[in-house]
Amino acid sequence: MWKAEHWKDYEVIDTSDGEKLERWGKYFLVRPDPQVIWNTPKKDPRWHKFDARYARSNSGGGQWSQHRLPERWQIRYRDLTFNVKPMNFKHTGVFPEQAANWDFIAERIGNAGRPLSVLNLFAYTGGATLAAAKAGASVCHVDAAKGMVAWARENAASSGLAEAPIRWIIDDCAKFVEREIKRGRRYDAVIMDPPSYGRGPSGEIWKLEKDLYPFLKLVADVLSDEPEFFIINSYTTGLAPSVLTCLLDSVITPRHGGYTLSDELGLPVSSGLVLPCGATGRWVRG
Description:
Layout: E1 2-3, E2 10-16, E3 19-24, E4 27-32, E5 52-56, E6 62-65, E7 73-77, E8 80-84, H1 99-110, E9 117-121, H2 127-134, E10 138-143, H3 146-158, E11 166-170, H4 173-183, E12 189-192, E13 197-199, E14 205-207, H5 208-220, E15 229-234, H6 241-251, H7 253-256, E16 259-268, E17 274-284
Helix pairs in contact: 1-2
């Protein structure tokens, strides 16, 4: 398991009965987590003294309760700064387990010995974009949600990257890649974080298990002749890390050599456990 072990402003304090108790800077949140199917004694008093709790509704969705949070605040990871905001459907704008990938991205770019261009698809609020740009790469950040791209730009500015070589694109990822291929633009590294389920701009239904393989084949055509790495993230609980290995070794490795490693991502819990948080596949040139 690849663990995000270097956080100072974020911490999973405890996990129990479908929920996790977290510290985000100086604020304490309780949020649901489908992986937490075990119970602990909940001895930590912050289980009952939290600043906000996201409670699911029996009719679907949910809402924040006992909300004692500012509209936004900041947390840092190494030399990156993120603007945290409590959102609908329990999110805060940061997936802390992805720090394990940010470290990998920074290391690969720093050791490449050449300038790299990086394409970040389904890029959300820009954690991977910031890591790549801070390490010296030029980045194309693509997400279909205008609000998420604006949020990512805020994070870039907060991280001292307002003038970094980042292209901010609001577009459907597949349509954008198709146009980049026609334009002859190529990238030395790709990061993709596709949703488990979604709808396209014309109502097309995206389902990860059905659509990821053809999408990967499309994106492979936008790689340069000597790509450095390719990352796929998956939050679909039924998708084993080895599936990501098979995908990348079926599409990328035959064209460019190299090899793939895949594993779960995890967040250390202060109580001694490690919380699994989805899977990542990493193809590297060697």
